[in-house]
């Protein structure tokens, strides 16, 4: 807020200029001015136009009395609309200025949920306040992230979780699964506590390294909803993110079924013990599973707040059950418990359980594969990242602490010092007092405790850590609490997965990577709940619950999760390896090589767990990756893939600079003067055939660079773009020829259209066009000029159809004003037919060419470019049915010898051809009709000084130096005759060719006038099929050496 009062004549005189400025600005902003010319200008920050409501473009300026103009609409045209003027403010610098001090609002994305986005003044605004043409993207803000564009009205009342409730609790509940109570003792029985610790440690290494990598990624910027998908896609790009996002969302949906089936199996076991089976065990699992998932769905749909409360309740039950286990180990064992192998803490039992005792074909890796799913679930917090108060702080802290707590818990609950491996469960298998029995074998510890379990060496027993999955229930102080803990572990994990899957899937759908899934992007309620995603997850879960077999579901789930972990680790490594300045994670305790090790370790663990499931996971991921790559979603998240691509490109370009050019590695690298590429499609299509995906195609664009880039990408024309600000077509082209490219990656061929309107164009236009050709020769560019009878420029048609802006290149074909005027009047049927024919011809190189010929008139040796370019065309699919015919000039009486020499040369070059024609009458004079046509062509540009007096002739030369003199015609009579005669021969031999290639004549600089040169080019290519004039730079581009 600021105010200023102007009073008194001395103030008015002293501040008249300031007053006038403030008055104009004040009027525009609606500030109030008093009648006594004592204006008080007041503006609040919220009304400051520097804060852009939409966040798309910087505000335009109103042109005031400073320039005496009218209001600009931002496009260079004037209208009566008054746009808001960005006000200057009294800043920290002590004076009114448009400059702004650094502020976080300038760096927000459009639609930011944490504050309004402000638009800083653009450089053009500061440099020229009345700049009429707004520059796209001048605000310098990051490209909008679809994930961040959340309706602002959802902001109020949204539930957000801290690091404990949102991350720590969820991760612990997801990691503590059913494995904790019914498989952990078996794992330690098989592997012994020595290798058992290795199993747990290896699992924790995988999850810890992944947690460190995730912490680095999620602290490198604001994290939105989507969990693992968001982290991977924003780091590695949509291809990796889209493929793993779909897999990860599906894995979470199937994980719901896995956990619910585990819960249902436990319930069915209880029913079985009490003879309460409803139908049979398999169908009872299905019934209980479906009922359970319906209840879980109700909790989830009720909202994140209710789901979080349910998770807290389940955590309390689970913690009580874990404490119950530790309490039970301290209670003196009863006779019944001893008969089942439990003897409280005993050092001898601990030492007996140290070595492994793998049975039933189990190995270290098979045991590890069974345990590892118990360590997954570290992404439970990340999956609801959009519902966290501060994901950057919560995710590292909560995830890593959860890994530590659960890892210690698994080690503590292992019971390796209290339970023997085998026990009979028979209370009568005791050793009588005074009985002298030597204790040895596998049951030494139990023997020394007074129990004889030697029968377990002969036949299998039902108790002990190796045989009884309910050891935890037996050891605990109160058995039903372990059952409740098992229920809590399975249901909490199922609930976490039921929430995670729709959240990840919704984030994936919002990014519109898979357009068919856009339906599921819509959210509901204050928390933007993915109700549609919940329903889809429910359907998937029910489908897998019907299978009712954990052994079928579990391997695929584990591998899907591991694939996500591997990519998170690789994302961290990749971002660090790229060394992009944008990689600045706040979390510092990570290492790029450790992340790479984690990624490799995850991939290895996938094969250890289940090799066929690992191959299936990779196959699905590769398929989705290829699909997203082909679809090319229109997103740009500044991924590390882009950064590494840039670094690789720079390194490769630098390495090329130290290598000399070699003729065998020559590639056509074209600079194509198209104006807007859509205006001359034939020129661009032919250049694309030359370069394809292996050369450099660079088009000249004089405006709308980003728009033309998008058009070329849409048309799959792989090309680079350059735009220059210049006063003339020639100057701009000269600048491009000197500055375009990088190192060895620079154009070596200039390609342009023939200037068909040279006879009606002004002299400066012709001189500019011919000057470009001279410049190309001076800079040693190969030169290609394409002529088509109907013309190349279709800009007037595009403009009439409303598909473009009719943008023109000033050097080609004709006056834009004349063409633009032609579409303002109703078109006659004849004009419509001509336009249709023009459009058809302009796209002919986009179609497959029928059987025919490419006639190459190789008149002059230019290094081989005239021969190489048509050969390249014949290797393309569009021209594969076209045969090459070679026409050369020969001397009378040497036709066969010249043909044989050319045949030998072509064979050495390994260039296929259909025929060789030797023209031995090329030196004959053209017929009278052809010559008359040429004379009529140049008549308006001749001086005819021969019929004038010397004085008058000199005056004419001085006034019209660009005109064709009689002396010039006499000097170049033979060369002129050659062009006219060549046209006759072309008409005679190549009238039916698909494409004609002719060696371009060169006009000696300063000797041949521009109009005479244009007449040569015109008469040479007149009334012919599509014709290309080619002149190499006279350096070899062909070789027959290996």
Automatic annotation (TrEMBL):
Residue spans of biased composition, Low complexity class: 67-79
Membrane topology, as annotated: Multi-pass membrane protein
Region (Disordered): 53-82, 800-827
The SLC12A transporter C-terminal domain, residue ranges: 680-806, 830-1042
Domain Amino acid permease/ SLC12A: 166-670
InterPro entries noted in UniProt: AA-permease/SLC12A_dom (IPR004841), AA_permease_N (IPR013612), SLC12_C (IPR018491), SLC12A1/SLC12A2 (IPR002443), SLC12A_fam (IPR004842)
GO terms for cellular component: apical plasma membrane
GO molecular function: sodium:potassium:chloride symporter activity
Transmembrane segments: 167-188, 194-223, 244-264, 284-302, 314-333, 364-386, 398-420, 478-501, 534-554, 560-578, 590-613
Any one biological process term the GO annotation gives: sodium ion homeostasis
Catalytic activity: K(+)(out) + 2 chloride(out) + Na(+)(out) = K(+)(in) + 2 chloride(in) + Na(+)(in)
Basic and acidic residues biased stretches: 805-820
The family this protein is said to belong to: Belongs to the SLC12A transporter family.
Protein name (record): Solute carrier family 12 member 1
Gene source species: Oncorhynchus mykiss
């Amino acid at each position: 807020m600021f105010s200023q009062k102007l009073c008194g004549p001395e103030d008015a005189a002293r501040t008249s200029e300031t007053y006038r400025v403030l008055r104009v600005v004040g009027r525009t902003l609606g500030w109030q001015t008093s009648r006594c010319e004592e204006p008080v200008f007041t503006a609040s920050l919220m009304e400051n136009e520097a804060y852009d409501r939409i966040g798309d473009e910087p505000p335009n300026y109103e042109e005031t009395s400073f320039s005496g103009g009218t209001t600009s609409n931002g496009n260079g045209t004037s209208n009566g609309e008054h746009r808001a003027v960005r006000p200057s403010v009294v800043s920290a610098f002590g004076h009114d200025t448009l400059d702004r001090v650094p502020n976080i609002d300038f760096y927000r994305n459009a639609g930011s949920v944490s504050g309004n986005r402000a638009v800083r003044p653009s450089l053009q605004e500061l440099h020229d306040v009345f700049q009429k043409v707004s520059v796209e993207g001048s605000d310098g803000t990051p490209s909008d992230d679809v994930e961040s564009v959340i309706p602002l009205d959802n902001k109020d009342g949204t539930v957000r979780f801290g690091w404990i409730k949102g991350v720590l609790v969820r991760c612990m509940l997801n990691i503590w699964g059913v494995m904790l109570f019914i498989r952990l003792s078996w794992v330690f029985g098989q592997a012994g506590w020595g290798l058992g610790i290795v199993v747990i440690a290896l699992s924790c290494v995988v999850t810890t390294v992944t947690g460190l990598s995730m912490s680095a990624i999620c602290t490198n910027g604001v994290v939105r909803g989507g969990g693992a998908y968001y982290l991977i896609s924003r780091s590695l790009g949509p291809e990796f993110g889209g493929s793993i996002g779909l897999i990860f969302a599906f894995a979470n949906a199937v994980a719901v079924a896995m956990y619910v089936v585990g819960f249902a199996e436990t319930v069915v076991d209880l029913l079985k013990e009490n003879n309460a089976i409803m139908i049979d065990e398999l169908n009872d699992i299905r019934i209980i599973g479906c009922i359970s998932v319906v209840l879980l769905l109700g909790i989830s749909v009720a909202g994140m707040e209710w789901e979080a409360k349910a998770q807290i309740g389940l955590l309390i039950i689970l913690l009580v059950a874990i404490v119950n286990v530790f309490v039970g180990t301290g209670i003196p064992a009863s006779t019944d418990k001893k008969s089942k192998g439990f003897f409280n803490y005993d050092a001898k039992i601990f030492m007996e359980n140290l070595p492994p005792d793998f049975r039933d074909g189990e190995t270290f890796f098979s045991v590890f594969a069974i345990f590892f799913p118990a360590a997954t679930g570290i992404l439970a917090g990340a999956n609801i990242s959009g519902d966290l108060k501060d994901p950057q702080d919560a995710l590292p802290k909560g995830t890593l602490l959860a890994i530590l707590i659960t890892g210690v818990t698994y080690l503590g609950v292992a019971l390796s010092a209290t339970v023997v491996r085998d026990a009979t469960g028979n209370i009568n298998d005791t050793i009588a007092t005074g009985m002298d029995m030597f204790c040895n074998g596998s049951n030494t510890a139990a023997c020394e405790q007074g129990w004889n379990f030697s029968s377990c060496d002969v036949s299998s027993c039902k108790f002990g850590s190796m045989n009884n999955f309910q050891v935890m229930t037996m050891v605990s102080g109160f058995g039903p609490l372990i059952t409740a803990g098992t229920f809590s572990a399975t249901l909490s994990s199922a609930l976490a997965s039921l929430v995670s899957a729709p959240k990840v899937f919704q984030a994936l759908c919002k990014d519109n990577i898979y357009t068919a899934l856009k339906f599921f992007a819509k959210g509901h309620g204050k928390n933007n709940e993915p109700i549609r995603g919940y329903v889809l997850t429910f359907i998937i879960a029910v489908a897998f619950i019907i299978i009712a077999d954990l052994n079928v579901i579990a391997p695929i789930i584990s591998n899907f999760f591991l694939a996500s972990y591997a990519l998170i680790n690789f994302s961290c490594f990749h971002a660090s390896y790229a060394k992009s300045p944008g990689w600045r994670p706040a979390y510092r305790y990570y290492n790029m090589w450790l992340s790479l090790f984690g990624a490799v370790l995850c991939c290895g663990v996938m094969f250890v767990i289940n090799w066929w499931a690992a191959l299936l996971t990779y196959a699905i991921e590769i398929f989705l990756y290829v699909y997203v790559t082909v679809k090319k979603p229109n997103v740009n998240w500044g991924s590390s893939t882009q950064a590494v691509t840039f670094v690789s490109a720079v390194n490769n370009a630098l390495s090329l600079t130290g290598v000399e050019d070699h003729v065998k590695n020559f590639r056509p690298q074209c600079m194509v003067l198209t104006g807007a590429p859509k205006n001359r499609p034939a020129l661009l299509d032919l250049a694309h055939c030359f370069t394809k995906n292996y050369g450099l195609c660079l088009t000249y664009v004089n405006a709308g660079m980003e728009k033309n880039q998008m058009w070329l990408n849409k048309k799959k024309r792989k090309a680079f773009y350059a735009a220059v600000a210049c006063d003339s077509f020639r100057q701009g082209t000269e600048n491009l020829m000197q500055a375009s490219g990088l190192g060895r990656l620079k154009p070596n061929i200039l390609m342009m259209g023939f200037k068909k309107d040279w006879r009606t164009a002004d002299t400066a236009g012709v001189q500019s066009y011919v000057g470009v050709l001279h410049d190309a020769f001076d800079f040693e560019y190969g030169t290609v000029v394409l002529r088509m009878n109907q013309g190349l420029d279709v800009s007037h048609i595009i403009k009439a159809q409303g598909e473009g802006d009719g943008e023109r290149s000033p050097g080609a074909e004709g006056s834009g004003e004349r063409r633009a005027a032609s579409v303002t009047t109703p078109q006659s049927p004849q004009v419509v037919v001509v336009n249709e024919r023009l459009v058809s011809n302009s796209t002919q190189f986009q179609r497959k060419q029928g059987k025919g010929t490419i006639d190459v008139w190789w008149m002059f040796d230019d290094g081989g470019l005239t021969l190489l370019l048509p050969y390249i065309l014949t290797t393309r699919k569009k021209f594969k049915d076209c045969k090459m015919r070679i026409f050369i000039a020969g001397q009378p009486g040497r036709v066969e010898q010249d043909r044989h020499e050319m045949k030998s040369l072509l064979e050495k070059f390994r260039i296929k051809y259909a025929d060789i024609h030797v023209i031995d009458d090329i030196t004959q004079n053209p017929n009278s009709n052809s010559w008359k046509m040429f004379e009529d062509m140049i008549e308006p540009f001749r001086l005819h000084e021969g019929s004038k007096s010397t004085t008058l002739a000199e005056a004419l030369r001085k006034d019209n130096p660009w005109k064709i003199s009689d002396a010039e015609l006499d000097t170049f009579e033979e060369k002129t005759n050659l062009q006219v005669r060549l046209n006759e021969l072309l008409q005679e031999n190549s009238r039916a060719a698909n494409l004609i290639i002719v060696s371009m004549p060169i006009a000696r600089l300063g000797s041949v006038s521009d109009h005479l040169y244009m007449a040569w080019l015109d008469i040479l290519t007149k009334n012919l099929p599509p014709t290309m004039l080619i002149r190499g730079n006279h350096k070899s581009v062909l070789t027959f050496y290996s």
